[in-house]
Write a structure and sequence with these properties.
By secondary structure, the chain is of the alpha/beta class. It is about 40% helix and about 20% strand. The strands form 3 sheets. It has an 8-stranded mixed β-sheet, with helices on both faces. Strands 7-8 form a two-stranded antiparallel sheet. Helix 4 crosses helix 5 and helix 5 packs across helix 8. It starts with a strand and ends with a helix. The structure holds beta-D-ribofuranose and calcium ion.
C-alpha cells in the first residue's frame, strides 16, 4: 500500500490521476494540496473536493489550497483551451459538502511527512511551488519522505511550452530547481514517456462497456472530460480520437515503479535565462566528489499495461 500525498493543478489529466488514486486498492490518499496551473489553486481544490465525492469514497480526504503563483510571483493565465474554463473540461460535477482545510499547503506537506515517518510518497502533477516552499521551511524534508514522483520535464524530446521545457517545470522553474537539487528520492515522469502513452476513443468505449455500476458516475465524467481533451489534441497535434497520458502515468508509476525503465541523472533546472527557462540541464561527468543526489528519470514505459491498469480500477 502506497500512502500518497498528491500535489496537483487539477486539470483533466490530473483529475484522472486523482480518481485512479482514490479508486486503487494499492493507494491510500493522505491528502491533496493544490497549485496554480491548469486553473487557479482555489479552483483546483474545488475540483478535487468534487472528484472525491464523485469517487464514492466513504472517508474524507483533506484538500489544502496552495500557491496561486510561482516563487517569483508569476502566473500565466489558465490554459482554458486545454482544460476548459473550470480545469476539468467544463464538466459540472456536484458540489461537495466538504471544504478545504485551513492550513498552509507547505505546512500540511511537512506535517504529513512527519506523521508518516518515512512512509509518505509525494506525487506532483503540477508546478513544484508548494514543495519548494515546504523545503524552505524544512530542508530535511527530502529525507523524511519515501519517494517523490513528479510529472514534468523533457530530456530527449521537445518541450510543450518551449523547444526545451515542459509546462510543470517551466511554470515555476526556480521552484523546480530547488526541488531537483534537494536530495529527494525523486522519480521524474516526463514527456519522454507521457507523449508516447495514449488513451484512445476505443479505450473509452471499452471502459463504458465494462465499468462496474458503482464506477459509472466516474466513467461518465471521464468520458466527457476526455472528449474535451481529445478535441484539444486534435486541434493542436492532429491526433484524432486520442490523447497523451501525462499525470495518470506518474500516479501509476508511483504505485508500481516496474511499469518503467529509468536512467539515473544528476540534474538542475534553468530558471534565469528566459529562452531556456524550465530546461533540465544534466551533468554526465564522472565525479566521485559530487554530492548531488541522482534522480531516476523514466525513459521507457509499458504504455499498454499502464493504460489497462489505469482503467482497471473502474471495472
Ligand atoms: C502537464 O501540464 C499540465 O497541463 C498537465 O496537467 C500535465 O501535468 C503536462 O505538461
Ligand atoms: Ca497537471
Amino acid at each position: 500500500m502506497q500512502r500518497i500525498l498528491i500535489d496537483a493543478d487539477t486539470g483533466i489529466d490530473d483529475s484522472i490521476a486523482i480518481l485512479y488514486a482514490l479508486k486503487s486498492k494499492k493507494i491510500l490518499v493522505e491528502g491533496i494540496t493544490t497549485c496554480f496551473g491548469n486553473s487557479g489553486a482555489a479552483q483546483s481544490a474545488d475540483n478535487c473536493l468534487r472528484l472525491i465525492q464523485l469517487s464514492g469514497l466513504s472517508r474524507e480526504v483533506p484538500v489544502v489550497i496552495g500557491a496561486e503563483c510561482s516563487l517569483d510571483g508569476e502566473y500565466a493565465s489558465a490554459p482554458a483551451h486545454i482544460h476548459g474554463e473550470n480545469g476539468i473540461g467544463n464538466v459540472i460535477l456536484s458540489e461537495s459538502s466538504q471544504t478545504p482545510l485551513k492550513e498552509d499547503a507547505a505546512d500540511f506537506i511537512i506535517r504529513k511527512a512527519n506523521e508518516l515517518e518515512g512512509d509518505l510518497v509525494i506525487v506532483t502533477t503540477g508546478r513544484l511551488t508548494n514543495l519548494a516552499r515546504a523545503l524552505e521551511k524544512d530542508p530535511k524534508l527530502p529525507r523524511k519522505v519515501k519517494k517523490l514522483v513528479t510529472m514534468g520535464g523533457c530530456l530527449q524530446v521537445p518541450g510543450n511550452v518551449s523547444p526545451f521545457a515542459e509546462a510543470n517545470i517551466a511554470g515555476d522553474a526556480r521552484a523546480a530547481n530547488q526541488v531537483f537539487c534537494a536530495g529527494f528520492h525523486m522519480v521524474l515522469v516526463g514527456l519522454d514517456v507521457t507523449m508516447k502513452t495514449f488513451i484512445t476513443s476505443h479505450d473509452l468505449e471499452n471502459l463504458e462497456r465494462y465499468c462496474s455500476a458503482e464506477s459509472r458516475p466516474c466513467v461518465e465524467y471521464i468520458r466527457k472530460a476526455l472528449n474535451f481533451y481529445f478535441e484539444f489534441h486534435r486541434q493542436s497535434e492532429g491526433m484524432m480520437g486520442r490523447c497523451v497520458v501525462h499525470d495518470p502515468l506518474a500516479m501509476l508509476i508511483a504505485e508500481d515503479g516496474t511499469l518503467g525503465e529509468y536512467a539515473m541523472i544528476r540534474a538542475c533546472v534553468e530558471y534565469e535565462a528566459l529562452a531556456y527557462k524550465g530546461m533540465i540541464v544534466t551533468d554526465h561527468r564522472f565525479n566521485s566528489e559530487m554530492e548531488q543526489d541522482e534522480i531516476a528519470a523514466c525513459i521507457r514505459v509499458d504504455s499498454d499495461k499502464a493504460v489497462r491498469r489505469l482503467f482497471s480500477v473502474f471495472q
